[in-house]
Design a protein that fits this description.
It is found in: Cytoplasm; Endoplasmic reticulum; Membrane; Nucleus. The chain has 743 residues and is α+β, with helices and mostly antiparallel strands. Helices cover 28% and strands 22% of the residues. The chain has 5 domains: 105 residues, Pleckstrin-homology domain (PH domain)/Phosphotyrosine-binding domain (PTB) (PH-domain like, Roll), CATH 2.30.29.30; 73 residues, EF-hand (Recoverin, domain 1, Orthogonal Bundle), CATH 1.10.238.10; 73 residues, EF-hand (Recoverin, domain 1), CATH 1.10.238.10; 249 residues, Phosphatidylinositol (PI) phosphodiesterase (TIM Barrel), CATH 3.20.20; 131 residues, C2 domain (Immunoglobulin-like), CATH 2.60.40. The longest helix is centred in the last third of the chain and has 19 residues.
């Protein structure tokens, strides 16, 4: 790995600045500085880097393909919504050195982080930050500065006592293991030690039977408890002697509580755990709106990064707005606005690379895509029997249920892309061959928009000549033939849909229209969504790419609730929270009472839900650990954290409660407060834990959050590992809680 390399940082075809890049001594941080001024511009941690792409794998580098060879180009991709870093090295050798070096560093930190490893990394990072003169030792003044950096406001006498206890060499400084001792004393978890001693007869260890008692009584583990206890000891007990004796020390107990097995999120639900053999309309489907946009809706930047980021987050329904471009090449952008444009072929290529890279491959339900998809990526399409696959690679399959009704399942459609769009004629015409019936070109609710679509689908303009007209007519029919299970039809009411619509059709509704239907015909809406797909999209007034609440749409069973993935906030936290389960495949099975076409359920009347009565969710918020500072806070500022628990679900379940704030302690605050909620429809509830920095004169500042579906909660003593505003992890920041669920 190069220790200092001059490379070009590129933001656009005309913006190319030379910067020195250097890997710092900790092998975890990279900074870069201006060649002209020598001033350090920025730094980032290896833990912030998701991957490194070689060659011209960004729009900016593609625009420079003629000027710089791919061997010198690479892109650093960060987690979350942070922009990529496009770089051009001075030579292919330098580029390879950085690419391979970065990948090794990323790979070495990509294995599951144990509590011990996180703490070790955390200790090293803090030591290097506080060691002002870089002599490898820390005096008491540097320790006091460190405490401020770590969000700790500690009595000076107490801090000095901890310092002196750790200074075994009596040198007046801490180094190496002495600092580790100081850190251990600082991070002593009294609440965990007290819990440990409650179940330990001698206060020093948990025997196998004592651990089994804890797992049964507190963690409510009722199956294979002895086997689980043995597994936890083998996995988390740091002492070989203790492991051989089948006992768990206090350190091992803490490591277990901080592990995935001790998380509030049921680890079994992280994997694919739901039935994937039901019709598509029985699932909530992770969906994005105007996926190509990474900024606002009027002048924002269109980018293939929008598709890459959405797909990596488990999104399964993407939107592609395709318009005529120069020389007949289709371009993707937000029509009738000033957003930038990207070639359609680049979108298709991106889908081919990233559509099925999620952990558990599942179908991607695409939006209206154009004819080039039938080329290189045509193998992904699902073809009807009447249409041969032009690529010669994709075996078509078709599922017919009850005659002409088509109800495919996610399992059957694995590794396939569906096209949602308008269709010439009926679906049966595609399957059986065209009949005598007049073509039915379906449209949206907006008449002018539909007329424009019809004009564009028919002919590209008389000035282009009859040859191009013929190509476009063929294209329109070919594209229509590819629309199988998601034929777009206008919505004219639930009665009309029952009489004339088919399960293979889908309607798109604005958020305002959907809200009116929820208010006026809630039960009819739920019944409709039990047999047909519905897509909801944001209001056209949301030009800033803000989002509506998806929860009210999920409450009536709407499957495709399209959100602006580029905009962080509560709405995307809910989306990530719902779809973080089931292998993050982008599909979540709806509750049984929402899959019944004759259901009586109405979200405005919880008593209409069939099943047991309300349940009580009791949350004891015990403590927090190493909470991050608020972004852009003043040097030396320490947060005053509070925890708010928010419930999202049917209207009767919507609620929030919060703890008091703890003054000047973001390092190890203790709340020991109990919050209680009654849930009438727990199957639809999402729980959001939010940590904020209290401010009595202005709005509280966001610190971290974690959201999950009620169905994924594990009761007992659990840690909640917090996420940033972008949805990325911020280890080792966490909350420690006790969860009880009673009927």
């Amino acid at each position: 790995m190069q220790q200092g390399t001059l490379m070009r940082k590129v933001k656009s075809k005309s913006w190319k600045k030379q910067r020195y890049f250097k890997l710092q001594e900790d092998c975890m941080t990279i900074w870069y500085q201006s060649k002209r001024t020598g001033k350090t511009e920025s730094a980032f941690s290896i833990s912030d880097v998701e991957t490194v792409r070689e060659g011209h794998q960004s729009e900016v580098l593609q625009s420079l393909a003629e000027e710089f060879p791919p061997e010198r180009c690479f892109t650093i991709v960060f987690y979350g919504r942070r922009g990529n870093l496009d770089l051009i090295a001075g030579s292919a050798e330098e580029a390879q050195c950085w690419v391979q070096g970065l990948r090794q560093l990323i790979e070495s930190g990509s294995f599951p982080l144990t509590f011990a490893l996180v703490s070790c990394t955390w200790v090293r990072d803090w030591f290097q930050k506080a060691d002002k003169n870089k002599d490898g030792r820390m005096n008491f003044k540097e320790v006091q500065r460190l405490l401020k950096m770590m969000n700790v406001d500690m009595n000076e006498d107490h801090a000095l006592r901890l310092f002196q206890d750790a200074d075994k060499s009596e040198s007046g400084t801490l180094e190496g293991e002495e600092f580790v001792l100081f850190y251990k004393a600082l991070t002593q978890r009294e609440e965990v030690l007290s819990l440990f001693q409650e179940f330990s007869e001698d206060g020093k260890k948990l025997t196998l039977l004592e651990l089994v008692d804890f797992l049964r009584q507190e963690q409510l583990e009722d199956e294979g408890t002895e086997e689980l206890a043995m597994e936890l000891i083998d996995k988390y007990e740091p002492s070989e002697t203790a492991r051989a004796r089948h006992v768990l020390s206090a350190d091992g107990f803490l490591m277990y509580l901080c592990s995935p097995e001790g998380s509030i999120f049921n680890p079994q639900h992280r994997a694919l755990w739901q039935d994937m053999s039901q019709p598509l309309c029985h699932y909530f489907i992770s969906s994005s709106h105007n996926t190509y946009l990474i900024e606002d809706q009027l002048r924002g930047h269109s980018s293939i990064e929008g598709y890459i980021r959405a797909l990596k987050r488990g999104c399964r329904c993407l939107e592609v707005d395709c318009w005529d471009g120069p020389n007949g090449e289709p371009m993707v952008y937000h029509g009738h606005t000033f957003t930038s444009k990207i070639p359609f072929r680049e979108v298709v290529s991106t889908l081919g690379k990233y559509a099925f890279k999620v952990r558990h491959p599942s179908p991607g339900a695409g939006a209206l895509l154009s004819h080039p998809l039938l080329g290189a990526e045509g193998r992904w399409l699902c073809w009807p029997p009447a249409v041969q696959d032009p690529s010669g690679q994709a075996p078509w399959r078709c599922w017919v249920v009850q005659g002409a009704s088509l109800s495919p399942t996610p399992q059957e459609l694995k590794h396939k892309i569906l096209l949602k769009g308008k269709k010439i004629g009926r679906l049966e015409d595609t399957l059986d061959g065209p009949g005598d019936e007049a073509p039915d070109v379906s449209d949206d609710d907006n008449g002018a928009e539909a007329e424009e679509e019809r004009r564009r689908a028919k002919v590209g303009g008389t000035q282009r000549g009859s040859a191009l007209q013929k190509d476009k007519e063929t294209l329109a029919q070919a594209l229509s033939d590819c629309v199988i299970y998601c034929k777009n039809v206008p919505f004219h009411g639930f009665q009309e849909a029952r009489s004339h619509s088919r399960p293979s059709e889908i309607s798109s509704l604005s958020e305002a229209k959907a809200r009116k239907l929820i208010r006026d015909e809630g039960n009819e809406f739920v019944r409709h969504n039990a047999w047909q797909l519905t897509r909801i999209y944001p209001s056209g007034m949301r030009t800033d790419s803000s989002n509506y609440s998806p929860q009210e749409m999920w409450n009536v069973g709407c499957q495709i609730v399209a959100l602006n993935f580029q905009t962080a906030g509560t709405e995307m936290d809910l989306c990530d929270g719902l779809f973080s389960q089931n292998g993050s495949c982008g599909y979540v099975l709806k509750p049984p009472f929402m899959r019944d076409k004759e259901t009586l359920f109405n979200p405005t009347d919880p008593s209409s839900r069939e099943g047991p009565g309300p349940i009580t969710l009791t949350i004891q918020v015990i403590s927090g650990q190493q909470l991050p500072k608020v972004a852009n806070s003043k040097e030396g500022a320490i947060i005053d954290p509070l925890v708010r628990v928010e419930i999202y679900g049917v209207p009767a379940d919507q609620a929030h409660q919060e703890t008091k704030y703890i003054e000047n302690n973001g390092f190890n605050p203790r709340w020991d407060e109990t919050l209680q909620f009654q849930l009438h429809v727990p199957e639809l509830a999402l729980i959001r834990f939010v940590v904020e920095d209290y401010d009595k004169t202005s709005r509280n500042d966001f610190v971290g959050q974690f959201t999950l579906a009620f169905a994924n909660i594990k009761p007992g003593y659990r840690h909640i590992h917090l996420l940033s505003k972008d949805g990325t992890s911020i280890p080792p920041s966490s909350l420690f809680v006790h969860i009880r669920i009673t009927e």
